[in-house]
Design goal:
Helix content: 40-55%
Low-confidence stretches: 1-6, 52-71
Shape: elongated
Largest sheet: 13 strands, antiparallel
Number of strands: 20
Number of helices: 16
Oligomer: single chain
Distance between the termini: 167 Å
Structural class: alpha+beta
Strand content: 25-35%
Length: 629
Protein backbone atom coordinates (compact mmCIF):
# COMPACT_ATOMS: atom_id res chain seq x y z
CA UNK A 1 0.00 0.00 0.00
CA UNK A 2 2.86 2.32 0.89
CA UNK A 3 4.65 1.50 -2.39
CA UNK A 4 1.54 2.37 -4.38
CA UNK A 5 1.16 5.65 -2.47
CA UNK A 6 4.81 6.40 -3.11
CA UNK A 7 4.40 5.86 -6.81
CA UNK A 8 1.42 8.23 -6.97
CA UNK A 9 3.33 10.87 -5.04
CA UNK A 10 6.28 10.50 -7.40
CA UNK A 11 4.10 10.97 -10.45
CA UNK A 12 2.44 14.02 -8.94
CA UNK A 13 5.91 15.45 -8.17
CA UNK A 14 7.16 14.95 -11.70
CA UNK A 15 4.03 16.60 -13.10
CA UNK A 16 4.45 19.58 -10.79
CA UNK A 17 8.15 19.95 -11.72
CA UNK A 18 7.34 19.75 -15.49
CA UNK A 19 4.60 22.31 -15.05
CA UNK A 20 6.95 24.67 -13.20
CA UNK A 21 9.62 24.28 -15.94
CA UNK A 22 7.07 24.86 -18.68
CA UNK A 23 5.85 27.96 -16.91
CA UNK A 24 9.41 29.28 -16.53
CA UNK A 25 10.15 28.63 -20.23
CA UNK A 26 6.95 30.40 -21.26
CA UNK A 27 7.85 33.34 -19.08
CA UNK A 28 11.37 33.60 -20.50
CA UNK A 29 10.62 33.06 -24.21
CA UNK A 30 12.11 35.82 -26.49
CA UNK A 31 9.95 38.61 -27.75
CA UNK A 32 9.41 39.11 -31.55
CA UNK A 33 12.01 41.91 -31.45
CA UNK A 34 14.55 39.60 -29.78
CA UNK A 35 13.85 36.86 -32.33
CA UNK A 36 14.44 39.34 -35.21
CA UNK A 37 17.72 40.50 -33.64
CA UNK A 38 18.90 36.88 -33.26
CA UNK A 39 18.01 36.09 -36.90
CA UNK A 40 19.86 39.22 -38.09
CA UNK A 41 22.97 38.32 -36.07
CA UNK A 42 22.89 34.80 -37.49
CA UNK A 43 22.58 36.14 -41.08
CA UNK A 44 25.49 38.57 -40.54
CA UNK A 45 27.63 35.72 -39.26
CA UNK A 46 26.83 33.61 -42.36
CA UNK A 47 27.63 36.54 -44.70
CA UNK A 48 30.90 37.22 -42.89
CA UNK A 49 31.91 33.54 -43.25
CA UNK A 50 31.03 33.59 -46.99
CA UNK A 51 32.98 36.81 -47.55
CA UNK A 52 36.02 35.43 -45.76
CA UNK A 53 35.79 32.23 -47.81
CA UNK A 54 35.53 34.21 -51.10
CA UNK A 55 38.55 36.34 -50.20
CA UNK A 56 40.52 33.23 -49.40
CA UNK A 57 39.58 31.65 -52.75
CA UNK A 58 40.39 34.68 -54.92
CA UNK A 59 43.51 35.62 -52.92
CA UNK A 60 42.88 39.33 -53.48
CA UNK A 61 44.75 41.61 -51.14
CA UNK A 62 45.87 45.19 -50.93
CA UNK A 63 49.17 46.70 -49.89
CA UNK A 64 48.08 46.85 -46.24
CA UNK A 65 48.05 43.05 -46.12
CA UNK A 66 51.82 43.14 -46.57
CA UNK A 67 52.67 45.51 -43.75
CA UNK A 68 54.18 42.59 -41.86
CA UNK A 69 55.82 39.75 -43.76
CA UNK A 70 54.72 36.19 -43.13
CA UNK A 71 56.83 34.28 -40.68
CA UNK A 72 59.22 31.75 -42.16
CA UNK A 73 60.96 29.20 -39.99
CA UNK A 74 64.67 28.52 -40.26
CA UNK A 75 64.25 25.30 -42.24
CA UNK A 76 62.08 27.06 -44.85
CA UNK A 77 64.60 29.89 -45.03
CA UNK A 78 67.38 27.42 -45.84
CA UNK A 79 65.23 25.78 -48.54
CA UNK A 80 64.35 29.13 -50.09
CA UNK A 81 68.00 30.15 -50.05
CA UNK A 82 68.94 27.00 -51.90
CA UNK A 83 66.21 27.55 -54.48
CA UNK A 84 66.30 31.31 -55.05
CA UNK A 85 69.73 32.33 -53.82
CA UNK A 86 69.90 36.01 -52.90
CA UNK A 87 66.21 36.53 -53.77
CA UNK A 88 65.07 34.23 -50.96
CA UNK A 89 64.70 37.41 -48.88
CA UNK A 90 61.77 38.48 -51.09
CA UNK A 91 60.03 35.13 -50.67
CA UNK A 92 60.05 35.59 -46.88
CA UNK A 93 57.96 38.76 -47.28
CA UNK A 94 55.64 37.89 -50.16
CA UNK A 95 52.92 35.37 -51.01
CA UNK A 96 50.86 34.34 -54.04
CA UNK A 97 48.11 36.90 -53.54
CA UNK A 98 47.09 39.73 -55.88
CA UNK A 99 47.08 43.50 -55.50
CA UNK A 100 44.02 45.36 -56.77
CA UNK A 101 44.02 48.92 -58.16
CA UNK A 102 41.33 50.83 -60.09
CA UNK A 103 41.06 54.09 -62.00
CA UNK A 104 37.98 55.52 -63.68
CA UNK A 105 38.91 53.67 -66.88
CA UNK A 106 40.83 50.56 -65.80
CA UNK A 107 40.34 47.79 -63.24
CA UNK A 108 43.73 46.14 -62.62
CA UNK A 109 45.10 43.20 -60.70
CA UNK A 110 48.83 42.64 -60.15
CA UNK A 111 50.13 39.18 -59.37
CA UNK A 112 52.61 39.19 -56.47
CA UNK A 113 54.14 36.10 -58.03
CA UNK A 114 55.91 37.62 -61.02
CA UNK A 115 54.95 41.24 -60.30
CA UNK A 116 53.07 41.57 -63.61
CA UNK A 117 49.51 42.53 -64.55
CA UNK A 118 47.34 39.44 -64.15
CA UNK A 119 44.05 41.15 -65.03
CA UNK A 120 43.12 44.24 -67.06
CA UNK A 121 39.47 45.18 -67.51
CA UNK A 122 38.28 48.18 -69.54
CA UNK A 123 35.49 49.55 -67.37
CA UNK A 124 33.64 51.52 -70.05
CA UNK A 125 33.21 48.73 -72.62
CA UNK A 126 31.46 45.39 -73.03
CA UNK A 127 31.69 42.85 -75.84
CA UNK A 128 29.03 41.71 -78.32
CA UNK A 129 27.44 39.55 -75.59
CA UNK A 130 27.45 42.33 -72.92
CA UNK A 131 30.40 40.73 -71.09
CA UNK A 132 33.04 43.18 -69.75
CA UNK A 133 36.08 43.65 -71.97
CA UNK A 134 39.11 41.91 -70.46
CA UNK A 135 42.46 42.41 -72.16
CA UNK A 136 44.19 40.19 -69.59
CA UNK A 137 42.48 37.49 -67.53
CA UNK A 138 42.96 33.88 -66.44
CA UNK A 139 46.65 33.61 -67.37
CA UNK A 140 46.29 34.66 -71.02
CA UNK A 141 49.28 37.04 -70.63
CA UNK A 142 52.87 36.72 -69.47
CA UNK A 143 55.50 39.30 -68.63
CA UNK A 144 58.88 37.85 -67.77
CA UNK A 145 62.54 38.87 -67.51
CA UNK A 146 65.00 36.04 -67.94
CA UNK A 147 68.46 36.66 -66.46
CA UNK A 148 71.46 34.87 -65.01
CA UNK A 149 73.04 35.43 -61.60
CA UNK A 150 76.64 35.43 -60.47
CA UNK A 151 76.02 32.20 -58.50
CA UNK A 152 75.22 30.41 -61.79
CA UNK A 153 71.40 30.46 -61.61
CA UNK A 154 69.01 31.20 -64.45
CA UNK A 155 65.92 32.94 -63.08
CA UNK A 156 62.57 33.97 -64.55
CA UNK A 157 60.79 36.80 -62.81
CA UNK A 158 57.36 35.27 -63.62
CA UNK A 159 58.11 32.57 -61.03
CA UNK A 160 59.62 34.83 -58.35
CA UNK A 161 57.88 36.49 -55.36
CA UNK A 162 57.48 40.27 -55.48
CA UNK A 163 56.59 42.48 -52.54
CA UNK A 164 53.86 45.05 -53.38
CA UNK A 165 53.41 48.59 -52.17
CA UNK A 166 50.58 50.93 -53.25
CA UNK A 167 50.78 54.70 -52.80
CA UNK A 168 48.75 57.68 -54.02
CA UNK A 169 50.17 60.86 -55.51
CA UNK A 170 47.28 63.13 -56.45
CA UNK A 171 45.30 61.42 -59.22
CA UNK A 172 48.16 58.94 -59.84
CA UNK A 173 48.24 55.55 -58.11
CA UNK A 174 51.74 54.09 -57.89
CA UNK A 175 52.11 50.31 -57.64
CA UNK A 176 55.62 49.20 -56.74
CA UNK A 177 56.38 45.48 -57.07
CA UNK A 178 59.84 44.65 -55.69
CA UNK A 179 61.84 41.47 -56.02
CA UNK A 180 64.10 41.95 -53.02
CA UNK A 181 67.55 40.85 -52.04
CA UNK A 182 67.42 43.20 -49.08
CA UNK A 183 65.54 46.39 -48.23
CA UNK A 184 68.04 48.40 -50.28
CA UNK A 185 68.70 45.84 -53.06
CA UNK A 186 65.90 44.87 -55.42
CA UNK A 187 64.45 44.59 -58.92
CA UNK A 188 61.38 46.83 -59.19
CA UNK A 189 58.39 46.99 -61.51
CA UNK A 190 56.88 50.44 -61.02
CA UNK A 191 53.43 51.16 -62.45
CA UNK A 192 51.87 54.64 -62.48
CA UNK A 193 48.11 54.44 -63.06
CA UNK A 194 46.50 57.79 -63.93
CA UNK A 195 42.88 58.83 -63.75
CA UNK A 196 41.27 59.46 -67.14
CA UNK A 197 44.13 57.75 -69.02
CA UNK A 198 44.54 54.37 -70.71
CA UNK A 199 48.32 54.87 -70.70
CA UNK A 200 50.25 54.00 -67.54
CA UNK A 201 53.88 54.68 -66.77
CA UNK A 202 55.95 51.52 -66.43
CA UNK A 203 59.57 51.29 -65.31
CA UNK A 204 61.75 48.24 -64.78
CA UNK A 205 64.80 49.08 -62.70
CA UNK A 206 67.23 47.42 -60.36
CA UNK A 207 69.12 48.81 -57.39
CA UNK A 208 72.23 47.26 -55.86
CA UNK A 209 72.15 44.16 -58.08
CA UNK A 210 75.29 44.79 -60.13
CA UNK A 211 77.13 42.08 -58.15
CA UNK A 212 74.16 39.65 -58.42
CA UNK A 213 73.02 39.91 -62.08
CA UNK A 214 75.47 38.19 -64.45
CA UNK A 215 76.29 40.82 -67.07
CA UNK A 216 77.95 38.29 -69.38
CA UNK A 217 74.66 36.53 -70.06
CA UNK A 218 71.82 37.83 -72.23
CA UNK A 219 68.88 39.42 -70.44
CA UNK A 220 65.58 39.14 -72.30
CA UNK A 221 62.15 40.61 -71.64
CA UNK A 222 59.37 38.30 -72.87
CA UNK A 223 55.92 39.84 -73.36
CA UNK A 224 53.29 37.33 -74.48
CA UNK A 225 49.54 37.66 -74.90
CA UNK A 226 46.61 35.65 -76.25
CA UNK A 227 43.88 37.97 -77.53
CA UNK A 228 40.37 37.35 -76.28
CA UNK A 229 37.52 37.39 -78.77
CA UNK A 230 35.37 40.53 -78.41
CA UNK A 231 33.33 40.57 -81.65
CA UNK A 232 30.38 38.60 -82.97
CA UNK A 233 32.44 37.08 -85.79
CA UNK A 234 35.83 35.83 -84.62
CA UNK A 235 37.04 35.38 -88.22
CA UNK A 236 36.14 38.97 -89.10
CA UNK A 237 37.86 40.20 -85.93
CA UNK A 238 40.94 38.20 -86.90
CA UNK A 239 41.24 40.11 -90.18
CA UNK A 240 42.09 43.19 -88.14
CA UNK A 241 44.17 41.42 -85.46
CA UNK A 242 47.96 41.61 -85.79
CA UNK A 243 51.11 42.85 -84.10
CA UNK A 244 52.15 46.39 -85.04
CA UNK A 245 55.40 48.22 -84.40
CA UNK A 246 56.94 51.63 -84.96
CA UNK A 247 60.56 51.59 -86.15
CA UNK A 248 63.25 53.88 -87.54
CA UNK A 249 61.73 57.13 -86.29
CA UNK A 250 58.16 57.01 -87.49
CA UNK A 251 57.89 54.08 -89.89
CA UNK A 252 55.12 51.65 -89.01
CA UNK A 253 54.53 48.06 -90.05
CA UNK A 254 52.75 44.94 -88.87
CA UNK A 255 52.99 41.15 -88.83
CA UNK A 256 49.69 39.37 -89.38
CA UNK A 257 50.89 35.78 -89.07
CA UNK A 258 54.43 34.51 -88.62
CA UNK A 259 57.71 35.89 -87.26
CA UNK A 260 59.66 39.07 -87.80
CA UNK A 261 62.92 40.62 -86.57
CA UNK A 262 63.00 44.39 -86.04
CA UNK A 263 66.17 46.38 -85.47
CA UNK A 264 64.99 49.60 -83.87
CA UNK A 265 61.57 49.90 -82.19
CA UNK A 266 59.82 52.64 -80.20
CA UNK A 267 56.60 50.69 -79.54
CA UNK A 268 55.06 47.28 -80.09
CA UNK A 269 51.28 46.87 -80.21
CA UNK A 270 49.25 43.69 -79.88
CA UNK A 271 46.25 44.99 -81.80
CA UNK A 272 42.87 43.38 -82.06
CA UNK A 273 40.05 44.85 -84.10
CA UNK A 274 38.93 47.48 -81.60
CA UNK A 275 41.25 47.06 -78.58
CA UNK A 276 45.02 47.13 -78.23
CA UNK A 277 47.85 46.42 -75.80
CA UNK A 278 50.95 48.49 -76.47
CA UNK A 279 54.41 48.53 -74.88
CA UNK A 280 56.24 51.82 -75.52
CA UNK A 281 59.70 53.17 -74.78
CA UNK A 282 61.57 56.46 -75.25
CA UNK A 283 65.00 54.79 -75.41
CA UNK A 284 64.01 52.37 -78.25
CA UNK A 285 64.25 48.60 -78.21
CA UNK A 286 66.99 46.91 -80.24
CA UNK A 287 66.88 43.57 -82.12
CA UNK A 288 63.30 42.72 -81.19
CA UNK A 289 61.67 39.44 -82.24
CA UNK A 290 57.88 39.33 -82.73
CA UNK A 291 55.64 36.41 -83.57
CA UNK A 292 51.91 35.99 -84.19
CA UNK A 293 49.91 32.79 -84.54
CA UNK A 294 46.31 32.36 -85.61
CA UNK A 295 44.42 30.42 -82.94
CA UNK A 296 41.22 30.07 -84.98
CA UNK A 297 41.46 26.91 -87.07
CA UNK A 298 37.70 26.32 -87.07
CA UNK A 299 35.33 29.20 -86.24
CA UNK A 300 32.66 26.98 -84.68
CA UNK A 301 35.19 25.32 -82.34
CA UNK A 302 37.87 27.94 -81.59
CA UNK A 303 35.69 30.65 -80.05
CA UNK A 304 37.73 32.07 -77.13
CA UNK A 305 41.02 33.45 -78.49
CA UNK A 306 41.84 35.19 -81.78
CA UNK A 307 45.64 35.15 -82.07
CA UNK A 308 48.67 34.76 -79.85
CA UNK A 309 51.38 37.43 -79.71
CA UNK A 310 54.95 36.82 -78.58
CA UNK A 311 57.63 39.51 -78.21
CA UNK A 312 61.24 39.09 -77.08
CA UNK A 313 63.19 42.26 -76.24
CA UNK A 314 66.89 42.22 -75.26
CA UNK A 315 67.68 44.43 -72.26
CA UNK A 316 71.03 46.16 -71.90
CA UNK A 317 72.55 46.84 -68.49
CA UNK A 318 73.61 50.36 -67.56
CA UNK A 319 76.46 50.29 -65.05
CA UNK A 320 75.54 46.73 -64.16
CA UNK A 321 71.91 47.70 -63.42
CA UNK A 322 68.60 47.48 -65.31
CA UNK A 323 66.90 50.79 -66.04
CA UNK A 324 64.23 50.48 -68.73
CA UNK A 325 61.68 53.34 -68.77
CA UNK A 326 58.51 52.37 -70.63
CA UNK A 327 54.76 52.91 -70.86
CA UNK A 328 51.85 50.49 -71.16
CA UNK A 329 48.65 51.21 -73.09
CA UNK A 330 45.56 49.08 -72.58
CA UNK A 331 42.59 50.62 -74.31
CA UNK A 332 40.47 51.12 -77.44
CA UNK A 333 41.95 51.23 -80.95
CA UNK A 334 40.20 54.55 -81.37
CA UNK A 335 41.92 57.00 -83.72
CA UNK A 336 40.86 60.02 -81.63
CA UNK A 337 42.23 58.51 -78.40
CA UNK A 338 45.46 57.18 -79.90
CA UNK A 339 46.17 60.43 -81.71
CA UNK A 340 46.17 62.41 -78.43
CA UNK A 341 49.44 60.76 -77.34
CA UNK A 342 51.46 62.13 -80.28
CA UNK A 343 53.54 58.95 -80.45
CA UNK A 344 52.44 57.65 -83.85
CA UNK A 345 49.99 55.25 -82.18
CA UNK A 346 47.31 56.18 -84.71
CA UNK A 347 49.15 53.79 -87.06
CA UNK A 348 47.36 51.03 -85.15
CA UNK A 349 44.19 52.03 -87.03
CA UNK A 350 44.32 50.40 -90.51
CA UNK A 351 43.23 53.35 -92.62
CA UNK A 352 45.35 52.16 -95.54
CA UNK A 353 48.73 53.16 -96.91
CA UNK A 354 49.77 56.19 -98.91
CA UNK A 355 47.01 58.21 -100.57
CA UNK A 356 44.24 56.03 -99.09
CA UNK A 357 45.39 56.62 -95.53
CA UNK A 358 45.78 60.34 -96.20
CA UNK A 359 42.18 60.57 -97.50
CA UNK A 360 40.85 58.77 -94.42
CA UNK A 361 42.88 60.73 -91.86
CA UNK A 362 42.37 64.22 -93.20
CA UNK A 363 39.02 64.05 -95.01
CA UNK A 364 36.75 61.19 -94.00
CA UNK A 365 37.70 60.96 -90.32
CA UNK A 366 37.08 64.69 -89.59
CA UNK A 367 33.93 64.71 -91.76
CA UNK A 368 32.46 61.62 -90.10
CA UNK A 369 33.38 62.90 -86.65
CA UNK A 370 31.63 66.18 -87.40
CA UNK A 371 28.45 64.50 -88.70
CA UNK A 372 28.39 61.96 -85.85
CA UNK A 373 28.59 64.79 -83.35
CA UNK A 374 24.99 65.86 -83.91
CA UNK A 375 23.19 62.97 -85.65
CA UNK A 376 22.87 59.17 -85.25
CA UNK A 377 25.79 57.32 -86.79
CA UNK A 378 23.61 55.44 -89.29
CA UNK A 379 22.25 58.76 -90.59
CA UNK A 380 25.83 60.13 -90.58
CA UNK A 381 26.87 57.30 -92.96
CA UNK A 382 23.98 58.13 -95.30
CA UNK A 383 24.75 61.88 -95.28
CA UNK A 384 28.48 61.28 -95.76
CA UNK A 385 27.75 58.95 -98.70
CA UNK A 386 25.51 61.58 -100.32
CA UNK A 387 28.22 64.25 -99.97
CA UNK A 388 30.88 61.98 -101.47
CA UNK A 389 28.66 61.02 -104.41
CA UNK A 390 27.78 64.65 -105.13
CA UNK A 391 31.48 65.55 -105.21
CA UNK A 392 32.17 62.67 -107.61
CA UNK A 393 29.13 63.25 -109.79
CA UNK A 394 31.20 65.20 -112.37
CA UNK A 395 33.35 62.06 -112.76
CA UNK A 396 30.27 59.97 -113.52
CA UNK A 397 29.14 62.62 -115.99
CA UNK A 398 32.46 62.42 -117.88
CA UNK A 399 32.27 58.62 -117.84
CA UNK A 400 28.71 58.53 -119.17
CA UNK A 401 29.46 61.21 -121.78
CA UNK A 402 32.32 59.12 -123.12
CA UNK A 403 30.04 56.06 -123.32
CA UNK A 404 27.42 58.12 -125.16
CA UNK A 405 29.99 59.27 -127.75
CA UNK A 406 31.16 55.70 -128.31
CA UNK A 407 27.56 54.60 -128.79
CA UNK A 408 26.98 57.31 -131.43
CA UNK A 409 30.20 56.37 -133.26
CA UNK A 410 29.47 52.64 -133.24
CA UNK A 411 27.86 52.49 -136.75
CA UNK A 412 30.88 54.26 -138.28
CA UNK A 413 33.29 52.03 -136.35
CA UNK A 414 31.43 48.92 -137.52
CA UNK A 415 31.66 50.22 -141.13
CA UNK A 416 35.45 50.68 -140.79
CA UNK A 417 35.89 47.13 -139.48
CA UNK A 418 33.76 45.75 -142.32
CA UNK A 419 35.68 47.76 -144.92
CA UNK A 420 39.07 46.56 -143.69
CA UNK A 421 38.08 43.12 -142.41
CA UNK A 422 41.08 41.63 -144.23
CA UNK A 423 43.50 44.23 -142.87
CA UNK A 424 43.17 44.46 -139.09
CA UNK A 425 46.05 46.90 -138.74
CA UNK A 426 44.44 49.33 -141.16
CA UNK A 427 41.12 48.97 -139.31
CA UNK A 428 42.78 49.87 -136.03
CA UNK A 429 44.50 52.89 -137.61
CA UNK A 430 41.26 54.30 -138.99
CA UNK A 431 39.39 53.50 -135.76
CA UNK A 432 41.92 55.50 -133.75
CA UNK A 433 41.81 58.34 -136.28
CA UNK A 434 38.01 58.53 -136.10
CA UNK A 435 37.96 58.45 -132.30
CA UNK A 436 40.61 61.15 -132.14
CA UNK A 437 38.76 63.46 -134.53
CA UNK A 438 35.45 62.94 -132.72
CA UNK A 439 37.00 63.45 -129.30
CA UNK A 440 35.81 60.04 -128.12
CA UNK A 441 37.99 57.27 -126.75
CA UNK A 442 37.40 54.09 -124.72
CA UNK A 443 40.15 55.30 -122.38
CA UNK A 444 38.17 58.49 -121.67
CA UNK A 445 35.57 56.31 -119.94
CA UNK A 446 38.20 54.42 -117.93
CA UNK A 447 40.03 57.44 -116.54
CA UNK A 448 37.06 58.80 -114.53
CA UNK A 449 36.60 55.33 -113.04
CA UNK A 450 40.26 55.35 -111.97
CA UNK A 451 39.73 58.70 -110.24
CA UNK A 452 37.06 57.07 -108.05
CA UNK A 453 39.25 54.11 -107.02
CA UNK A 454 41.19 55.92 -104.22
CA UNK A 455 37.91 57.08 -102.66
CA UNK A 456 36.37 53.61 -103.08
CA UNK A 457 39.31 51.86 -101.39
CA UNK A 458 39.69 54.50 -98.67
CA UNK A 459 36.06 54.10 -97.59
CA UNK A 460 36.46 50.30 -97.77
CA UNK A 461 39.18 50.70 -95.12
CA UNK A 462 37.46 53.48 -93.18
CA UNK A 463 34.14 51.98 -92.08
CA UNK A 464 35.51 48.70 -90.60
CA UNK A 465 38.10 50.76 -88.67
CA UNK A 466 35.75 53.44 -87.32
CA UNK A 467 35.59 52.81 -83.56
CA UNK A 468 32.61 55.18 -83.25
CA UNK A 469 30.44 52.65 -85.10
CA UNK A 470 31.01 49.99 -82.46
CA UNK A 471 27.71 48.91 -80.85
CA UNK A 472 25.80 51.77 -82.53
CA UNK A 473 22.36 50.69 -83.77
CA UNK A 474 20.49 51.77 -86.91
CA UNK A 475 17.12 50.49 -88.13
CA UNK A 476 17.26 46.68 -87.62
CA UNK A 477 21.04 46.68 -87.05
CA UNK A 478 22.29 46.27 -83.46
CA UNK A 479 25.93 47.05 -84.20
CA UNK A 480 27.11 48.96 -87.28
CA UNK A 481 30.66 47.67 -86.77
CA UNK A 482 29.47 44.05 -87.16
CA UNK A 483 27.15 42.19 -89.50
CA UNK A 484 23.37 42.51 -89.22
CA UNK A 485 21.18 39.42 -88.86
CA UNK A 486 17.63 39.00 -90.16
CA UNK A 487 17.70 35.18 -90.06
CA UNK A 488 19.87 32.49 -88.48
CA UNK A 489 20.55 29.36 -90.53
CA UNK A 490 20.62 25.87 -88.99
CA UNK A 491 23.76 25.11 -91.01
CA UNK A 492 26.92 26.85 -92.19
CA UNK A 493 27.42 27.82 -95.84
CA UNK A 494 31.11 27.98 -96.86
CA UNK A 495 32.29 31.58 -97.41
CA UNK A 496 28.82 32.84 -96.42
CA UNK A 497 28.20 31.83 -92.82
CA UNK A 498 25.28 30.61 -90.73
CA UNK A 499 23.18 33.77 -90.92
CA UNK A 500 21.53 36.08 -93.44
CA UNK A 501 22.39 39.79 -93.45
CA UNK A 502 19.99 42.19 -95.14
CA UNK A 503 22.27 45.13 -96.00
CA UNK A 504 24.58 43.01 -98.22
CA UNK A 505 21.47 41.76 -100.08
CA UNK A 506 20.26 45.32 -100.64
CA UNK A 507 23.77 46.43 -101.71
CA UNK A 508 24.02 43.50 -104.16
CA UNK A 509 20.66 44.35 -105.74
CA UNK A 510 21.66 47.99 -106.05
CA UNK A 511 25.04 47.19 -107.64
CA UNK A 512 23.34 44.84 -110.12
CA UNK A 513 21.04 47.58 -111.43
CA UNK A 514 23.90 50.10 -111.41
CA UNK A 515 26.09 47.77 -113.50
CA UNK A 516 23.17 47.03 -115.79
CA UNK A 517 22.85 50.73 -116.54
CA UNK A 518 26.59 51.29 -117.06
CA UNK A 519 27.77 48.01 -118.62
CA UNK A 520 24.66 47.88 -120.82
CA UNK A 521 25.71 51.20 -122.33
CA UNK A 522 29.29 49.91 -122.65
CA UNK A 523 28.23 46.68 -124.34
CA UNK A 524 26.31 48.63 -126.98
CA UNK A 525 29.12 51.09 -127.67
CA UNK A 526 32.19 48.87 -127.32
CA UNK A 527 33.36 47.58 -130.72
CA UNK A 528 34.49 43.99 -130.94
CA UNK A 529 38.22 43.93 -131.77
CA UNK A 530 39.48 41.07 -133.90
CA UNK A 531 41.68 38.67 -131.96
CA UNK A 532 40.75 40.28 -128.66
CA UNK A 533 38.50 38.91 -125.89
CA UNK A 534 34.80 39.65 -126.25
CA UNK A 535 34.54 42.60 -123.83
CA UNK A 536 30.76 42.71 -124.11
CA UNK A 537 30.51 39.12 -122.94
CA UNK A 538 32.99 39.73 -120.11
CA UNK A 539 31.00 42.77 -118.95
CA UNK A 540 27.84 40.69 -119.00
CA UNK A 541 29.47 38.07 -116.78
CA UNK A 542 30.73 40.79 -114.42
CA UNK A 543 27.23 42.25 -114.17
CA UNK A 544 26.07 39.02 -112.51
CA UNK A 545 29.29 37.94 -110.82
CA UNK A 546 29.96 41.19 -108.92
CA UNK A 547 26.64 41.25 -106.97
CA UNK A 548 27.01 37.56 -106.05
CA UNK A 549 30.57 38.15 -104.86
CA UNK A 550 29.41 41.14 -102.77
CA UNK A 551 26.57 39.09 -101.31
CA UNK A 552 28.97 36.40 -100.05
CA UNK A 553 31.92 38.61 -99.16
CA UNK A 554 29.99 41.22 -97.19
CA UNK A 555 27.71 38.87 -95.28
CA UNK A 556 30.25 38.80 -92.43
CA UNK A 557 31.52 42.36 -92.87
CA UNK A 558 30.53 45.46 -90.92
CA UNK A 559 26.95 46.45 -91.71
CA UNK A 560 28.08 50.10 -91.81
CA UNK A 561 30.18 49.27 -94.90
CA UNK A 562 27.27 47.44 -96.58
CA UNK A 563 25.01 50.40 -95.76
CA UNK A 564 27.50 52.72 -97.47
CA UNK A 565 27.63 50.60 -100.66
CA UNK A 566 23.84 50.28 -100.75
CA UNK A 567 23.29 54.04 -100.48
CA UNK A 568 26.22 54.78 -102.80
CA UNK A 569 24.88 52.57 -105.59
CA UNK A 570 21.35 53.92 -105.16
CA UNK A 571 22.66 57.47 -105.57
CA UNK A 572 24.80 56.42 -108.57
CA UNK A 573 21.71 54.97 -110.25
CA UNK A 574 19.84 58.23 -109.64
CA UNK A 575 22.72 60.34 -110.99
CA UNK A 576 22.99 58.22 -114.15
CA UNK A 577 19.25 58.42 -114.81
CA UNK A 578 19.32 62.20 -114.38
CA UNK A 579 22.37 62.55 -116.67
CA UNK A 580 20.88 60.26 -119.31
CA UNK A 581 17.36 61.68 -119.34
CA UNK A 582 17.83 65.34 -118.49
CA UNK A 583 21.43 66.41 -119.18
CA UNK A 584 22.87 64.50 -122.14
CA UNK A 585 21.26 65.04 -125.55
CA UNK A 586 22.46 62.40 -128.03
CA UNK A 587 21.41 64.48 -131.05
CA UNK A 588 23.38 67.42 -129.75
CA UNK A 589 26.39 65.21 -129.02
CA UNK A 590 26.17 63.73 -132.51
CA UNK A 591 26.18 67.22 -134.03
CA UNK A 592 29.19 68.19 -131.94
CA UNK A 593 31.04 65.05 -133.07
CA UNK A 594 30.37 65.81 -136.72
CA UNK A 595 31.61 69.35 -136.21
CA UNK A 596 34.78 68.11 -134.52
CA UNK A 597 35.41 65.66 -137.33
CA UNK A 598 35.52 68.57 -139.80
CA UNK A 599 38.14 70.41 -137.76
CA UNK A 600 41.82 69.47 -138.09
CA UNK A 601 42.73 67.52 -134.99
CA UNK A 602 46.15 68.05 -133.55
CA UNK A 603 47.56 64.85 -132.12
CA UNK A 604 49.38 64.80 -128.81
CA UNK A 605 52.75 63.10 -128.47
CA UNK A 606 51.30 59.78 -127.37
CA UNK A 607 48.76 59.67 -130.21
CA UNK A 608 51.40 60.70 -132.72
CA UNK A 609 53.79 58.02 -131.51
CA UNK A 610 51.07 55.35 -131.61
CA UNK A 611 50.12 56.36 -135.15
CA UNK A 612 53.75 56.18 -136.27
CA UNK A 613 54.20 52.75 -134.70
CA UNK A 614 51.07 51.45 -136.41
CA UNK A 615 52.18 52.86 -139.79
CA UNK A 616 55.58 51.18 -139.41
CA UNK A 617 53.90 47.92 -138.46
CA UNK A 618 51.61 48.19 -141.49
CA UNK A 619 54.61 48.81 -143.84
CA UNK A 620 56.46 45.86 -142.30
CA UNK A 621 53.45 43.64 -142.83
CA UNK A 622 53.09 44.70 -146.50
CA UNK A 623 56.82 44.07 -147.07
CA UNK A 624 56.53 40.55 -145.64
CA UNK A 625 53.52 39.84 -147.88
CA UNK A 626 55.49 40.95 -150.97
CA UNK A 627 58.42 38.67 -150.06
CA UNK A 628 56.04 35.72 -149.70
CA UNK A 629 54.60 36.40 -153.17
Amino acid sequence: MEEKKLDINSIIGFVLIFGILAYMLWQNQPTPEELEAQEKAKQEQVEAEQKAKAQQQTKVTTAEDYAVGSEVDSLQAVQLKGKLGAFAYSAMQSNDNETVVESDLLALKFSNKGGYLSEVRLKQFVDYDSIPIYIIKDNNAEFNINFGTTDNRILNTKNLPFVPQVTKNGDVTVVSMKLKVSESQFLEYRYEVKEGDYMMGFTVRSQGLSNIINSSQAINLDWNLKGYRHAKSISYENRYTDIHYDYEDGKADYTRDGEDDIEDVSWIGCKQHFFSSVLLTDTRFKNVKVKTENLVKEETIDTVFTKSFATTIPIELQGGEINQIMDLYYGPSDFKVLNTYDRNLDELVPFGWGLFGWINRYIFMPLFGFLGGFMPYGIAIVVMTILVKILLSFVQYKQFLSQAKMKILKPELDAIREKHKDNKMKAQQETMALQTKAGASPMAGCLPALVQLPVFYALFQFFPSAFDLRQKSFLWVDDLSSYDVIANLPFNIPFYGNHVSLFPILASIAIFFYMRLTTGQNMQSQPQQEGMPDMAKMMKYMMYFSPIMMLFFFNNYASGLSLYYFISNLISIGIILVIKNFILDEDKIHAQIQEKKKQPKKQNRFQKKMAEMMEQAEKQKQLQQKKKK
